[in-house]
Structure formats: structure tokens, C-alpha cells
Amino acid sequence: MNAPTPSSFETAGQRVWCDYVRCFADRVTTDSYGNVAAVLNPSGRPVVLLDGHIDEIGLMVKYINDKGFIYFQAIGLVSPKILPAQRVQIHTAKGPILGVIGAIPPHQTMDDEKKDLALHDLAIDIGAADGKAAARRVSVGDPITLISQFAMLSEDVAVARAFDDRAGAWAAAEALRLVAARRRELHCCVVACSTVQEEYGIRGAMMNVFNIRPDAAVVIETGIATDSPGLDQSRWGRMAVGDGPVIMIGRENHPALVRRLRKVAKGRKIKLQENAFFFQQDGTNASAIYPAVGGVPTALVSVCTRYIHSPVEVLSIKDLRQTAELIAAVCLDIKKDEAFRVEV
Amino acid sequence: MRKQSFDFLKQLLSCPTPSGHEAPGQKIWCQYARQFADKVTTDSYGNAIAVLNPKGSPKIMLDGHIDEIGLMIKHINDNGFLSFQTIGGVDASLLRGKRVNIHTAKGVVRGVIGAIAPHLTRGEGEPKPPKIHDMTIDIGAKDAKAARKRVAVGDPITFVDDFEMLTDDLAVARALDNRVGTWAAIEALRMAAEKRDDLHCAVYACSSIQEEVGSRGASMNVFNVRPDAAFVLEVTHATDSPGINAAQHGQVKLGEGPTISIGRENHPALLARLRDAAKARKIKLQTEAFSASGGTDAMAIYSAVGGVPSAVIGVPTRYMHSTVEMISLRDLQAAADLLTEACLTIKAGDTFRMKI
């Protein structure tokens, strides 16, 4: 969680992920854009893809003004509201630099009408004397992450920036590890992917599904928890932190895989939450995978996460662990040459 | 229209097929297709493909999507009322006062979308259009526990309104979008089968799923079929009812024949074929500029697998995405006839290219 991996700058996280999966995968490969695939039981069939994306949202240096303040654009969906007064790391060729996003003191804004902030209203201060001094230390195009490290809030509930979707990439690797421990019972080939550039429009998953040609896929994502104040459950459905992994119904979620997830969860006494499919069209990597290469039966498994796309994403470690256990159990439950089909 | 074909259309229209839940409609379509096709297959997500003359060349895909817009249970409220989300582009302002069928694992549960009586909102000024999450479905359950015994989060929902004839030519139904397309695709295959001695190309009639949530079924089919050209049969907006500005949306009339569209996904060589075929069969065509307001399966097909020459054939439809969609059966029959003729005039080895 502490490695910075803004979309298209995922290498630091991929190294951590690779080091972990090399302990138990039969083969670990990377592609031209830095996707990583860890394969277990390559001669098994069907081929089951486990996808979690390693990239996180972030910012990027857009413009350095004469006074040495740094303007930025978003990488992925970043709300300007969460940015004022944040500490940031700018990842330069020569290493990370500390900066702060300025905030106008309340004394000066007391009488102003409230208006919505735009990204270009905000600037990063790195303590540079002027534009020239700033340009010596940072360059246009340098990626930026917010500083907010992992911490436990309680015994079970953790906070960090970018659980979305390091949680998913972790669960894919962890499921692979759990399956590897019982590989004599395994019939299918499992390919765990740590995928790049989800936050840019599910690009890494498009590459992986073409390169891997899976027969089925499980996508692991953080799901928007609706149990914190201000969220209307009649609008977003009920999704509570600590109540277990969430499966989704409809659209990309293949009915046969959904049934299998339910069955395996019951057998393992894992409590599941269920919700109708997430209305956003390209919401997750599942949307890239299921219509590709002629149709790939896909299911989304979500880990309920509060305050998504903020530096204080909150989830339950138990939910996360159960997600990995559920997916491992599903992989072990798949029969030799099993096909997932909608019966017509 | 042939009686059996008309009955098949009615059967298709009486069947619920919200996107992602198309199997009941596909069953009907496959049963019908097996009478004429050389081969009928389905894929993992439930797309259905009927093939005629599989050894022929080139491969022509006829696409119509079987899925319809609908609703899905999102949340069962503490008092037993059901909150829902949409499947596809549902107009929230048309929902209050509708009867709905909830398709549960144990069968259909009837519900109604409540409407607050006008007496109770008097004096509150002009009513605002409702938001989806402001409305609920009432299944007569006394509380959440009772509701949960009968329905579950994720159950798909369709509207009750079925097929009726308004005149001897004009039909009204929910989900003519796009059962008429999938009907025309297989009808064209049927009519081509009757003249199979004259047929050179291979015809792949596809009943595609999940168009209303982003043309996903067509994306799968184009990869699996790898066609040399594709005709997409869709409903198109008739602009001859009150309140629609032809200057903005073009002029399309009910009963004046199927439409062809110019530009973007619509390949000029295929348009020329369609015009010739229409002339040969004395079918009146209407012409539209490509749809700026919405996509069809053609958008998924034409830019796939290296580029597939495609053309959209539209059946003029009033009140699209409502429960009172209206078409002319003559337009629909003409669309199927046009497709048949277009397939029959394709010679072995024909290619469709821009002249450069």
C-alpha cells in the first residue's frame, strides 16, 4: 500500500507484486505496458483470469509558473474538493519531492461566496524561490501522489489512500497463493493479473484479456460502501464494511459464475452481500473483459470501501481476506474443462 | 405478413428479455430459427446465431438485438417497498403508475410503481420530474422481511404492457426496440432459405444480447463470426408525432418505409447495395443522416476485428423506450424483404471497399 502507483507509473508497485507471486507462481510475465501476469498450472483448463488493478488515481505536473508554484492535472477521477491542504509527493526522475497543496486561510474567504473548486484553482508549493528554481527540481509530466500511508483504525478496519485497487491486486495474488498451497486439487489454470491503467479507462485489462484469452474471469475491486453518513441506500443499494465480499448481479456478471460464487461461499461459510450491477458503463475492468475476444464469462467481487477516491479509503481486512479465500475456493471448485454458459 | 411470422413476432414481444436476462427470448428465437437455418448456436453469454449456407462467401452478418430496457431491484427498504435502478436508458418520467413484472428465481411477482396522489401535492407548484431513486415498487408486502421472502436484490423487472394492433398496420408494444430487429434478421434468413439456389453468401443471423447496456453482445458476435459485412436492424426515431422538431432530428415517418443512414458506420458500398435492392423490390426507402443521438450495434461491429463494412436499416418507431412504442408492420416487412434481397444479390467473392 505504501508504493506509489499512479496510472501509467505502476512499476514500483508491480515490483512488489512480482516479488510476492514469484514465491508460488509457475511463471510470472510482464508485457509492454507493465501488466503482470502470474500463472499457476499452465496446462490446466479452463483458463481462469483473476484481475485486480495496481494503479491508483493521482495528479501530474501540468505547468510551473514564474513564481515557482506547480499546477497539475488529474490522473483518473480526482475530486478537487479533497485536495486543499494535502501533502503530496512529486515523483521526479531524481526521486520524490515533498510538496503541499495550498489552501487560502479561512480569514480571507469568510466573506466570499462558496464556489466549487476546479483543479486549476489549486497549486502545489514546493518551497521554490521562483519558476527557475522549481524547474530545476520538477518537470512537467512528473506524476504526483497524496501522502497518506496505511494505518489500522481498529483491529479490523484499515485506512489508506488507494485501496482502490491495491486491495484487488493483493486479493488476486493472495488467491493464487492459497490455490498454490492446494495445487493437487486444482484442475484449471489460474492467471492472476496485476493490471495497469484501470483509472484511465480500463486499458490494462483490455491488453490482458487479449494476451491471455481466458475462459472465465473474476475481477476484484473496491466497491462503494453505502454505510457511512450521506449515502442513500435506496439509490446505491446496501453495501456495508465488514459484512463480507459483495457479488453483483446483471450485465457483465455471468449468471453461472454468480451461482458458483454463491455456492462456494455457502460451503465456506462466507457471508456475501449482493447488489445490482454498478450503473456506470466502464466502471471496472470487468466491463473491458466480458465483451472481449468473443465473450468471457466474468464476475465482479467487491470489497466494500468507504470514501473511495480519497486519501482515507476505509475497508475491513476480514472482508478482504474472505474475498481472497472465496476466489481461491472457486478456482479449486472448477472442474476440468468446465464451461460457463447461459442456458438457452 | 405471413401468419406464422406474425405469430412469432407476437410471441417474441410477449416475452421478457431485459439486458443480461435474455434466455427466454433466445429460446423462442432459436426454436423458430431451427426450422430454416443450417445451424443454430449460442455462446457463453447467450447470444444466438443462425447460419444459412455456411460454406458460402462472403460472410454476411444480420444483427438485431433481443434485449430490452428494464429495471432491477437495488434495495429492499425497511417498510417492504423496493428501490430500483435502470437497465439501459429508461425515462424516469414515464414510470409512475406502471405495473411491473419482477422476474424472481421462483417466478413472476407483480408490482406497481407508486404515484403520489395529485391531491396530496396540490399547492406545491409545478411538479419536478422524478428521479429513479425517488420511486419505489409496491408488491403489497407488509415489511422488508415479507418482501425478502418474495423478491431479491438483483431481480430484473419488465413492464407489463404487451403487444396490440392499433389499426390493421400499426402495432403498439413495449420493447419493439429491438425485437423487430431480431425478428427481421431471422425473417430475412428464412426468406433467403426459400431461394437458396440463388444464394451465394453465407448468412449469419444474430440475435444479440445486451445492446441497451453498451452493445456488448454485438462485440462478442463480431469476434466469433468474423463477418465480411454486417447489416444491423434497429428501430429508428419516427419524427412525425407532435413535439419533435424535424429541423433538429430529421424527417422520418411511420409507414413510409425502412430507413438507411448515411455516414460514419454506414459503409457507402453497402448503402449502394441497399438502394439497388430497394429499387429492384420496389421498396420505398427513407434516408437519414447517421444518428448523432445514440448508438446501435453497428458502432460495436464496424470498428471491430480490423473493420467490418456495416449499415444500419431502421424501422421507424414512435415513442421509443416507452411502453407504447409504435411501428408500421408494412415498414417492418419491407425491412426484412430489403435485407433478403440484399443478401441474394451478393455474389461469391464480393468485397465491400471504399474506392480510392
Descriptive account of the structure:
The complex is a heterodimer of chains A (about 350) and B (about 350). Chain A is of the alpha+beta class and about 350 residues long. Chain A folds into 2 domains: about 10-55 and about 160-335, Zn peptidases (Aminopeptidase, 3-Layer(aba) Sandwich); about 60-145, Peptidase M42, domain 2 (Elongation Factor Tu (Ef-tu), domain 3). Chain A contains 9 helices and 17 strands. In chain A, the strands form 2 sheets. In chain A, strands 1, 2, 3, 10, 11, 12, 13, 14, 15, 16 and 17 form an 11-stranded mixed β-sheet that branches. In chain A, strands 5-4-9-6-7-8 form a 6-stranded antiparallel β-sheet. Chain A is globular and about 65 Å long. The N and C termini of chain A lie far apart (about 45 Å). Chain B is of the alpha+beta class. Chain B folds into 2 domains: about 5-70 and about 175-345, 3-Layer(aba) Sandwich (Aminopeptidase), CATH 3.40.630.10; about 70-160, Peptidase M42, domain 2 (Elongation Factor Tu (Ef-tu), domain 3). Chain B is built from 10 helices and 17 strands. Chain B has helices at about 5-15, 25-35, 120, 145-150, 175-195, 215-225, 245-250, 270-280, 295-300, 330-345; strands at about 40, 50, 60-65, 70-75, 80-85, 100-105, 105-115, 135-140, 155-160, 165, 170-175, 200-210, 230-235, 260, 285-290, 310-315, 325-330. Chain B has an 8-stranded mixed β-sheet with strand order 1-2-12-3-13-16-14-15, with helices on both faces. In chain B, a hairpin with a 2-residue loop joins β6 (about 100-105) and β7. The model of chain B has no long low-confidence stretch (mean pLDDT about 95).
In short:
Chain A is α+β, with helices and mostly antiparallel strands and 344 residues long. Helices cover 26% and strands 26% of the residues of chain A.
Any chance you could write out the topology, listing elements then pairs?
The complex is a heterodimer of chains A (344) and B (356).
Chain A: H1 11-21, E1 27-30, E2 36-40, E3 47-53, E4 58-64, E5 70-75, E6 87-92, E7 95-101, H2 106-109, E8 124-125, H3 131-137, E9 143-146, E10 151-152, E11 157-160, H4 163-180, E12 189-195, H5 203-212, E13 216-224, H6 233-236, E14 246-249, H7 255-267, E15 273-276, H8 285-289, E16 298-306, E17 313-316, H9 317-333
Parallel strand pairs in A: 3-12, 3-13, 13-16, 14-15
Antiparallel strand pairs in A: 1-2, 2-12, 4-5, 4-9, 6-7, 6-9, 7-8, 10-11, 11-17, 14-16, 16-17
Helix pairs in contact in A: 4-9, 7-9
Chain B: H1 3-13, H2 23-33, E1 39-42, E2 48-52, E3 59-65, E4 70-76, E5 82-87, E6 99-104, E7 107-113, H3 118-121, E8 137-138, H4 144-150, E9 156-159, E10 164-165, E11 170-173, H5 176-194, E12 202-208, H6 216-225, E13 229-237, H7 246-249, E14 259-262, H8 268-280, E15 286-289, H9 297-302, E16 310-317, E17 325-328, H10 329-344
Parallel strand pairs in B: 3-12, 3-13, 13-16, 14-15
Antiparallel strand pairs in B: 1-2, 2-12, 4-5, 4-9, 6-7, 6-9, 7-8, 10-11, 11-17, 14-16
